[in-house]
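--- STAGE predict ---
source: upstream dedup step, 1 unique chain passed
mode: sequence only
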Amino acid sequence: MKIIIAGDGKVGLALTRQLLHEGHEVTIVDSNPVVLQANMYQYDVMAVQGNAATMEALRQAQVEKADLLIAATSADEINLLCCLTAKKMNSRLHTIARVRNPDYTEQLFFMREELGLSMTINPELSAAREIFHLLQFPSFLHRDSFAKGRVEIVGLRVDEGSRLEGVALHQLYKIAQVKVLVCAALRAGQVVIPDGSFELKKDDRIFVTARAVNLAQLIKNLGITKQKVRRVMLVGGGHISFYLAQRLLDAHLSVKIIEQNPSRARFLAENLPGAAVVLGDGSSQSFLESEGLGEADALVSLTGIDEENIVLSMYAHSQGVPKVVTKVNRLEYNRMFEALDIGSIVSPKDLCSALIARYVRGMQNKTGKILALHLIAEGNAAAMEFRVDEHTHHRGVPLKDVPLRRGVLISCISRGADTIIPDGTSSFEVGDTVVAVSTLDAPVMQLNDLFV
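--- STAGE serialize ---
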């Protein structure tokens, strides 16, 4: 499809990379010529310099021929005006606006059609939801849902002395006592799509497909149960902290927010009366200790500086905080993150990019199209959900006889209300949904792309 991305910042760049990988034609619009030039050298895109909310810039980007416009500049108002103007210039156009300010929530709900919006997205709200999801099961480093929430792919680390260390995957059921499938493993920065002979080693990160109802039993049987999160410390009082604190308070958890900006701390204290808001420098070790870091069940580092978040999380881990979550905007250094003790990593821009990419796939309406896609293993592999239809190859064929591409594994089959963690004798039929995991060697747009 022909897609225009207005705004070439962190979210725009992540979207450009994702959409080009999936075979779309991308045009970027930005007022900064230096940024445009750098990304033209890096990616095969058309670039237009100018204010994305003006008709002139949109004409140069050929908005009349476009299928989708994504407004992801740093200003909510420009994003909304950009979508409104573009929709007037092309009534067929789908439009997505990034809107971060919670003050606009009510207007967007009532004025979506008048503003010409197909979808709005709030990266900070998405990140807060993801973090809350992770805090519900603190043993997991990573969680993604499929099959309307009935199936999850969860990330675990194989620690020294773990029941998993030295276990071949064909023996995993003896320990787990519930049917699961290890669909990917990350070892020394390299992703592996394993078979039954793959033996788990210390420091491996594994990604396990399991029924959602079996998650609690799985972590209990693996002996990795961590104490339930009841006391949460948030360092940094931005939008993510605000949204996350609301959810934590609704779940009747104890919340402490550390914020060094006096006006922001006052805002949080007035609008989150159930939370303890402390004015101070969250990067100070002595300050964190005096505020009860040692008694916290979880620390979430949410400052605006990646390096500060990483150091905070490493310190919290060294002090024995059971669950640590780190907000990181730049995920270019995945191998470095893997070696650090910074717990679960959440990237607002990558969450935003994934949600928009999912909408794009829904527009395409292809045979056996992707219903959902989540990047796992530090972005080195993708877990994808497909619908099986009458055009899908190899229906009814046992999986052991299906000619899958190298680096592909079928990890789940959902049939009506039944969820199947498959083995070699399982097969898929018309109407099923299939979850497959693949390395990112080649673009995958539909289920048939997984077959040789």
